[in-house]
UniProtKB/TrEMBL annotation:
Keywords: Membrane, Transmembrane, Transmembrane helix. It comes from Ciona intestinalis (Transparent sea squirt). InterPro entries: MS4A. The chain crosses the membrane at residues 26-51, 63-82, 89-115, 127-150. Residues 186-242 are annotated as: Disordered. Residues 186-203, 211-222 have a biased composition (Polar residues). This is Uncharacterized LOC100175973.
Amino acid sequence: MVMSPYNHQRLESNTEENPRQKYAKIYNGIGITNIVLGCIAAVLAVTGLAFESYSCCNRDIAAGIWGGVMLIISGTIAVNTARMMTKCMLVLTMLASAISAGVGLAMFGVELAFAVKMNNHNYWQYYYAKIVLLVIHGVLSFIGFTGMILSIVNTVYSSYALCTGHSVSFSIQRDQNGFATVTVTRTSPGDQSNPECSAQPQDNIEEYENIPTQQEISQNRSPPERPPPPYAALSDQKQPPV
């Protein structure tokens, strides 16, 4: 591989970004959102169970509680993955998000069915309890649907990071003579010593020596030759004596 000295500065600032680090903010944002949604779902589910005592025929299965707990677990794993970008954490995030997506879908269906059932039910001791439960189950169904979408997105991003977790970095060092050495390091997902739980650079390093810097190029470059002006030929000719 031959590297031109004129694109030396371009290579120094054109380093490829690792997809794992690129999506760290996405993992963190989705994880925090899932934790918040899970806490809200658990609180609303407990409140709904308290209002169920005013009904004679409804039996709540507390979908908001177990659905909210699963959202909290998957969100916590996603936040930890954003801080420790290892292969183990990415696999764990992918599995937890996939399970959370299924739980969110089940939560959405159950809560929506309860809301429709209560709307058609007339055996209520207090009418305001029916209104409160309709709102609670409607919000829980929305949380289940939102958690399902976020979990699917998180699963896709973690899968993509596992498949394309390679990065290329360039480092440039100058010796005492003023020449530069470019080191190209390629990082692939997983180390050979522990391929399951690490992402360390492998021995895939290329060095290019004796590459002048941009300052040396500008100092050693001779100015471009310009053609003489058209009047120069006339001025060089000897004028005849008067």
